[in-house]
């Protein structure tokens, strides 16, 4: 099992902007199944995410967490059921897939920055080539987001010259430059040295404070407690249990959840 | 005994105990480290002492202490007993080696082609030179058209010079440049096609690559020049040089495709995923993210293919095209210059010319590789 960490950010979370819409659906997954060859990796997934929700997905390694969020921007294809993102149903139609990807940002465990481009070029590439924004304007926006993740001074460097925490913050800024409506995080801190986890969590929390819709696969239970409005527990390709963080941690119902929590919390 | 320890005095840096610098230390480390090394060194030095003077005497002209006949010498000098390389013969036949049977009155046309090419290619290969886009457009689009009309003639009152009369270094450079420039995009497309998820495209690319790789270039050239006309409708002819160009290009593109595929496979999947998740289309993610990295990783392999192609151009001589090597070979039966060292000198000259170009390519690629290194480790 991946390491569980309890890193917390010691400041009050500003919840004034964290509004969960009761009408606007961001993601709607209905009866979704996925197989890798013969392996039934996701089974009967039903998940409705409202605009403004901050969802943490937890579960043992190999339970299908990554696969689930990768189905949301079609890095993986599902074989059965419906996935509707921002009102667009994901099918084999490439146009729709691109439409969804423009509006959904993704942050990976291993950052996946483009090593042959400078930080600034990493940030402006998609706005220029996907959104058709003029270069000067894209660079201005990129600097704004670099300031937001607190590393504007690194703009001219290459990813290889940055620390892991800095690279992950650049990766978040790169997604933000596309002004996504939804952000997906796949274990954004688990490849980082402990002292760098906090700087990345800080950025994620500030995103949540701005009202971003977020789906976050993470083992940062501190983050789940502080920021999430819902925690989803997955095992063997299924959603086993979901609840608000308080009840999820203090009052788990399913045996597997209890077992999982007993292993990670003392 | 206490476990606790605190350093009280810092140790200043001191010189290394054994001398590790200087000539003697270097020789001891590299030449005489073990008895076996020492023996090998002695044998090696003895071989050099035995081999170098005769080679030197053969290649270098009299005014540098050798036996070779410098340019301007006569055939009698070359026939004299003990004479070395007959450079006089090379310089006398130089225009044949450069232009082949191109009419001497029209030499200014290939010369202009050489000059324009040099003027365009130097800034193109020099990364800091400005106007890259215009430069590339001029070199890859305008220049070939100009070259064709300039060399071939038949327009603007230029005398027509059929390709049969082109030859020498001119033809060698034409074949290799066209081959290099055309095989690169074809190779990239083949490599991408081979990775395609569409089964038809994938199969076609695999078949093409495997077919061309499995057949020797000589066979391809023979088939192109002898068999192709049999299949063509009566009366239509495809220029011999053009057929060779197509053969060399496709042959080389199959090899390049495999080199590039290696680069594509070496890229981590995360790069493809990051590009997709930002909404980049297939061609944009290939052009902006995947290929720049993949090609950079395989620069040595690509240049290796280019060097191989450059040397393989000499095979076109077997279908009757007078490239550099073929002109050298043809000139070696020139009785006006017949001497014991005539043929050897010719081949030495050809080898030297090939070496210059290949060595330049090799050095340029090493330099470029260093320049493109953004210091990332994967
Ligand atoms: N591309 C793939 N092909 C085949 N099996 C895969 C692939 N990706 C993931 N799997 C398998 O699917 C299961 C779920 O993987 P994943 O979603 O990455 O789990 P998690 O993120 O919860 O650790 C694992 O058993 C994994 O081995
Ligand atoms: Mg995972």
Which labels suit this protein?
heterodimer; A: 266 residues; alpha/beta; Rossmann fold; four-stranded antiparallel beta sheet; 24% strand; globular; B: 378 residues; mainly alpha; MetI-like fold; binds adenosine-5'-diphosphate; binds magnesium ion
Task: Give a verbal description of the structure.
The complex is a heterodimer of chains A (266) and B (378). With 266 residues, chain A is an alpha/beta fold. Chain A has one domain (25-265): P-loop containing nucleotide triphosphate hydrolases (Rossmann fold, 3-Layer(aba) Sandwich), CATH 3.40.50. Chain A is 36% helix and 24% strand. Chain A contains nine helices and ten strands. Chain A has helices at residues 65-72, 94-103, 119-129, 135-148, 164-176, 194-209, 221-227, 245-250, 255-264; strands at residues 25-36, 39-50, 54-58, 80-85, 88-89, 104-107, 182-186, 213-217, 230-235, 238-243. Chain A has a six-stranded mixed beta sheet with strand order 6-7-8-3-9-10, sandwiched between helices. In chain A, helix 3 (119-129) packs across helix 4 and helix 5 packs parallel to helix 6. Chain A is globular, with a radius of gyration of 18 Å. The mean pLDDT of chain A is 91. Chain B is flat, with a radius of gyration of 28 Å. The mean pLDDT of chain B is 86. In chain B, helix 9 (199-214) packs across helix 11 (240-266) and helix 15 runs antiparallel to helix 16 (342-372). Chain B has 378 residues and is an all-alpha fold. Among the domains of chain B are: 90-166, no CATH class; 178-322 and 340-372, MetI-like fold (Orthogonal Bundle). At the A-B interface, helix 2, strand 6 and helix 3 of A face helix 12 and helix 13 of B. Bound molecules: adenosine-5'-diphosphate (ADP) and magnesium ion (MG).
List the helices and strands and how they pair.
The complex is a heterodimer of chains A (266) and B (378).
Chain A: E1 25-36, E2 39-50, E3 54-58, H1 65-72, E4 80-85, E5 88-89, H2 94-103, E6 104-107, H3 119-129, H4 135-148, H5 164-176, E7 182-186, H6 194-209, E8 213-217, H7 221-227, E9 230-235, E10 238-243, H8 245-250, H9 255-264
Parallel strand pairs in A: 3-8, 3-9, 6-7, 7-8
Antiparallel strand pairs in A: 1-2, 1-4, 4-5, 9-10
Helix pairs in contact in A: 3-4, 3-5, 4-5, 5-6
Chain B: H1 23-30, H2 35-59, H3 75-79, H4 87-92, H5 94-99, H6 108-125, H7 132-152, H8 168-194, H9 199-214, H10 217-231, H11 240-266, H12 269-277, H13 282-297, H14 299-312, H15 324-331, H16 342-372
Bound molecules: adenosine-5'-diphosphate (ADP) and magnesium ion (MG).
Residues 36, 39, 41, 59, 61-67 of chain A line the site of adenosine-5'-diphosphate (ADP).
């Amino acid at each position: 099992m991946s390491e569980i960490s309890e890193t917390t950010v010691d400041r009050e979370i500003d919840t004034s902007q964290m509004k969960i819409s009761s009408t606007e659906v961001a993601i709607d997954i209905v009866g979704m199944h996925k197989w890798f060859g013969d392996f039934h990796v996701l089974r009967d997934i039903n998940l409705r995410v409202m605009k403004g929700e901050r969802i943490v997905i937890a579960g043992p390694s190999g339970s299908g967490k990554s696969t689930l969020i990768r189905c949301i921007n079609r890095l993986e294809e599902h074989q059965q059921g419906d996935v509707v993102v921002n009102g667009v149903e994901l099918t084999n139609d490439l146009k729709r897939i691109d439409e969804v990807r423009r509006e959904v940002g993704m942050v990976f465990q291993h950052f996946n920055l483009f090593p042959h481009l400078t930080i600034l070029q990493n940030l402006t590439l998609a706005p220029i080539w996907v959104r058709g924004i003029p270069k000067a304007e894209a660079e201005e926006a990129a600097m704004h987001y670099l300031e937001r993740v607190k590393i504007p001074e690194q703009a001219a460097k290459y990813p290889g010259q940055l620390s892991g925490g800095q690279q992950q913050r650049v990766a978040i800024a790169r997604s933000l430059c596309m002004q996504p409506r939804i952000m997906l995080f796949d274990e954004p801190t688990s490849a980082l040295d402990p002292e760098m986890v906090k700087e990345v969590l800080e950025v994620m929390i500030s995103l949540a404070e701005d009202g971003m819709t977020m789906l976050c696969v993470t083992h940062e239970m501190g983050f789940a407690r502080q920021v999430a409005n819902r925690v989803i527990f997955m095992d063997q390709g299924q959603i086993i249990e979901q609840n608000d963080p308080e009840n999820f941690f203090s009052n788990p119902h399913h045996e597997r959840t209890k077992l999982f929590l007993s292993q990670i919390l003392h | 005994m206490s476990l606790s320890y605190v350093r009280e005095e810092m140790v200043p840096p001191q010189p290394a105990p054994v001398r590790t610098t200087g000539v003697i230390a270097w020789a001891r480390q590299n030449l005489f480290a073990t008895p076996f090394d020492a023996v090998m060194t002695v044998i090696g030095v003895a071989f050099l002492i035995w081999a170098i003077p005769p080679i030197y005497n053969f290649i270098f002209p009299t005014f540098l202490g050798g036996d070779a006949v410098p340019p301007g010498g006569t055939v009698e000098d070359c026939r004299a007993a003990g004479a070395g390389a007959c450079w006089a013969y090379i310089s006398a036949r130089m225009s044949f080696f450069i232009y082949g049977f191109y009419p001497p009155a029209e030499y200014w046309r290939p010369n202009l082609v050489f000059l324009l090419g040099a003027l365009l290619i130097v800034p193109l290969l020099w990364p800091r030179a400005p106007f890259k886009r215009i430069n590339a457009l001029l070199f890859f689009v305008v220049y070939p058209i100009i070259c064709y009309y300039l060399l071939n003639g038949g327009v603007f009152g230029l005398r027509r010079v059929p390709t049969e009369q082109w030859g020498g270094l001119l033809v060698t450079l034409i074949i290799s440049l066209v081959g290099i420039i055309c095989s690169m995009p074809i190779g990239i497309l083949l490599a991408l096609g081979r990775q395609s998820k569409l089964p038809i495209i994938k199969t076609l690319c695999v078949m093409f690559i495997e077919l061309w790789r499995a057949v020797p270039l000589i066979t391809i050239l023979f088939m192109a020049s002898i068999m192709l006309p049999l299949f063509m409708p009566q009366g239509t002819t495809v220029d011999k040089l053009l057929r060779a160009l197509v053969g060399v290009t496709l042959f080389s593109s199959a090899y390049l495709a495999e080199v590039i595929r290696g680069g594509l496979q070496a890229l981590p999947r995360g790069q493809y995923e990051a590009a997709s998740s930002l909404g980049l289309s297939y061609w944009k993610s290939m052009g902006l993210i995947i290929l720049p990295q993949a090609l950079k990783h395989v620069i040595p392999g690509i240049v290796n293919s280019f060097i191989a192609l450059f040397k393989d151009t000499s095979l076109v001589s077997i279908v009757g095209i007078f490239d550099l090597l073929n002109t050298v070979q043809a000139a070696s039966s020139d009785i006006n210059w017949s001497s014991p060292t005539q043929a050897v000198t010719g081949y030495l000259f050809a080898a030297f010319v090939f070496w210059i170009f290949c060595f330049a390519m090799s050095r340029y690629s090493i330099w470029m590789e260093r320049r493109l290194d953004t210091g990332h480790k994967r």
